[in-house]
């Protein structure tokens, strides 16, 4: 298997297909409570997520990555500009979007199985179909032996898998991930990255992954968007050119080093800018 | 867990034995404390004779009414105060220092309002126990992780469904802790009030026995209350632990 073969994804075809989601001139301003002062957190952002692509976003902390995700998820409206999903403007959380957060969002009062089935029951799906999908997702995420366990009995990585499974069963067409592996150790992250790639290939969903790990961004994505310090703007969008059946072994490829090097080059100046505005030294 | 339980039991048993021995050897006068064996005998007489059944039923009824009122009203008030930021900032300092006030000083007020009857007793018990439920409710709602509410929004749950399916179960262990405290405070409130202001109930029966030098009966009744409260508390504790263990992360 040629894991590292260059992508055969032809650009012209992608350009013809309508984007899965798109942002036009999107900004976010936050008003400080009490005062008239506002904080310009994000934008203006123009972004088209291609149908079925894996897009990573990296940027210095506080650059508005999560704000960007909130806009796409319909959790927060943009202050200016328009956001649309499958051609329709985003007003409230659209149908067909799944989100995995950085924090553990598993429901501690439900078993793994009930956690995964939670959204399906709300969607009014038949019992047989629920069982089929939960079975599949639980198996896919390697949780089969823990179906009857409660989240408190699982490790952090496994709880995050529960959350991913819970999102997966709803068969979202756009999956938004907000640093989902942020709390996990490096090895677990690599393995989870592989699982994420497998999931992406299988579901053919469009994926937007926010991460602060350059390796993760470079390894997983078709395109990596590099954001500036606040207010967050895309200063570069890098095509990685990996084949679709890539996995974490890509880290051994010389071009992987080149890729992370390129991302870091863009990011370094921004990160230093961020540190200066925050008055913080290197961690 | 089992081992710890055995140690606890051993400590209690050795205290009981020591008291029994001290009484038997005459180190403690029978006019002060009667031996535990005599307390048990007295308790069994009390239960067999049925002499105090009315008092027992009355006290338990009052406790139950107080528990129901303070848990339900405390929950509603807690939710309301939590929902209204302005109200919360105004009320919170009072709630925080509430238990510094000896609630029993208000008993003349309630006697004037309700008369010498169960209503005055229940009022004092509710006054004593409701705030524990209010603060526990607010605490529970505060501690619901924001990410769960965001998840509810992503799943497009209505506010009512979010409250019932996410907020309620997420905060349930805290609510339960409040309910448990309300039960304990209701017992204290009812029995102590009967002691000082009533002509009926277990508290009154103890006070009556005490005033008439009926040591044996007094200790039998005290044992009854201790056992009853311990059993209730143990049951609630077990449930509480089960709920809490799910939240431990």
Automatic annotation (TrEMBL), chain A:
Among Gene3D superfamilies, the record links this protein to: P-loop containing nucleotide triphosphate hydrolases
Keywords annotated in UniProt: ATP-binding, Nucleotide-binding, Transport
Using the record's annotation, list all stretches that form the ABC transporter domain. 21-254
Q: Which CDD domains match?
A: ABC_NrtD_SsuB_transporters
Keyword Mitochondrion belongs to the record: no
A Gene Ontology molecular function term for this protein is: ATP binding
Q: Which PROSITE patterns match?
A: ABC_TRANSPORTER_1, ABC_TRANSPORTER_2
Which branch of life, at top level? Bacteria
InterPro entries the UniProt entry points to: AAA+_ATPase (IPR003593), ABC_transporter-like_ATP-bd (IPR003439), ABC_transporter-like_CS (IPR017871), ABC_transporter_ATP-bind (IPR050166), P-loop_NTPase (IPR027417)
Xref: Pfam families: ABC_tran
Q: Which PANTHER family match?
A: ALIPHATIC SULFONATES IMPORT ATP-BINDING PROTEIN SSUB (PTHR42788:SF13), TAURINE IMPORT ATP-BINDING PROTEIN-RELATED (PTHR42788)
For this chain, the family text in UniProt reads: Belongs to the ABC transporter superfamily.
Protein name (record):
NitT/TauT family transport system ATP-binding protein
Natural source organism: Bosea psychrotolerans
Automatic annotation (TrEMBL), chain B:
**One GO BP annotation here?**
transmembrane transport
The way it spans or sits in the membrane comes to:
Multi-pass membrane protein
Which parts of the chain span the membrane according to its record? 55-83, 95-114, 120-141, 218-236
Q: Which Gene3D superfamilies match?
A: MetI-like
On whether Transmembrane helix is a keyword of this UniProt record, the answer is yes
UniProt keywords (A-Z) are:
Cell membrane, Membrane, Transmembrane, Transmembrane helix, Transport
- Cellular component GO terms, alphabetically? plasma membrane
**Where would I find the ABC transmembrane type-1 domain in this sequence?**
52-240
Protein location: Cell membrane
Q: Name one Pfam family in it.
A: BPD_transp_1
Tell me which InterPro entries the record gives: MetI-like, MetI-like_sf
The record's annotation in PROSITE patterns points to:
ABC_TM1, PROKAR_LIPOPROTEIN
Tell me which family the UniProt entry assigns to this protein. Belongs to the binding-protein-dependent transport system permease family.
Q: What is this protein called?
A: NitT/TauT family transport system permease protein
Task: Please report the organism this UniProt entry assigns to the protein.
Answer: Bosea psychrotolerans
């Amino acid at each position: 298997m040629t894991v590292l073969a260059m992508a055969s994804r032809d650009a012209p075809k992608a350009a013809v297909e309508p984007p899965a989601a798109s942002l036009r001139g999107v900004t976010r301003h936050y008003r400080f409570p009490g005062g008239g002062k506002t904080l310009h957190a994000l934008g203006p952002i123009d972004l088209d997520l291609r149908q079925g692509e894996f897009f990573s976003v990296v940027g210095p902390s506080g650059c508005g990555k999560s704000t960007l995700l909130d806009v796409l998820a319909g959790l927060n409206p943009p202050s200016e500009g328009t956001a649309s999903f499958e051609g329709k403007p985003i007003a409230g959380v659209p149908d067909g979007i799944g989100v995995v957060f950085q924090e553990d969002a598993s429901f501690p009062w439900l078993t793994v199985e009930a956690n995964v089935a939670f959204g399906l029951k709300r969607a009014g799906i038949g019992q047989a179909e629920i069982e089929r999908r939960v079975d599949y997702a639980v198996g896919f995420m390697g949780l089969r032996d823990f179906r009857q366990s409660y989240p408190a009995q699982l490790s952090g990585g496994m709880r995050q898998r529960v959350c991913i499974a819970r999102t997966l069963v709803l068969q979202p067409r756009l999956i938004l991930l907000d640093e989902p592996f942020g709390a996990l150790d490096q090895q677990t992250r690599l393995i989870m990255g592989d699982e994420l790639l497998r999931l992406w290939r299988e579901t053919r969903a469009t994926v937007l992954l926010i991460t602060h790990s350059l390796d993760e961004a470079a390894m997983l994505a078709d395109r990596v968007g590099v954001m500036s310090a606040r207010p967050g703007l895309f200063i570069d969008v890098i095509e990685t050119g990996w084949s679709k059946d890539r996995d974490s072994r890509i880290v051994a490829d010389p071009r992987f080093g080149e890729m992370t090097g390129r991302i870091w080059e863009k990011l370094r100046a921004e990160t230093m800018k961020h540190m200066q505005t925050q008055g913080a030294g290197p961690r | 867990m089992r081992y710890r339980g055995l140690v606890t039991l051993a400590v209690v048993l050795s205290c009981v034995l020591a008291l029994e021995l001290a009484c038997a050897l005459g180190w403690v006068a029978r006019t002060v404390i009667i031996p535990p064996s005599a307390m048990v005998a007295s308790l069994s007489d009390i239960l067999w004779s049925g002499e105090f059944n009315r008092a027992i039923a009355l006290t338990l009824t009052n406790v139950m009414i107080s528990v129901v009122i303070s848990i339900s009203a405390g929950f509603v008030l807690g939710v309301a105060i939590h929902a209204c930021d302005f109200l919360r900032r105004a009320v919170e300092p009072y709630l925080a220092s509430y238990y510094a006030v000896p609630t029993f000083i208000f008993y003349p007020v309630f006697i004037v309002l309700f008369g010498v009857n169960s209503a005055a007793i229940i009022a004092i018990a509710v006054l004593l126990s409701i705030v524990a439920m209010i603060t526990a409710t607010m605490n529970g709602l505060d501690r619901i992780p924001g990410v769960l509410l965001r998840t509810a929004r992503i799943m497009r749950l209505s506010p009512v469904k979010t409250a019932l399916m996410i907020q309620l179960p997420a905060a349930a262990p805290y609510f339960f802790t409040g309910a448990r405290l309300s039960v304990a405070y209701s017992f204290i409130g009812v029995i102590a009030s009967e002691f000082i202001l009533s002509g009926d109930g277990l508290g009154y029966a103890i006070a009556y026995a005490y005033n008439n030098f009926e040591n044996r009966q007094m200790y039998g009744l005290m044992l009854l209350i201790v056992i009853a409260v311990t059993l209730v508390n143990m049951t609630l504790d077990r449930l509480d632990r089960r709920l809490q263990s799910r939240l431990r992360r």
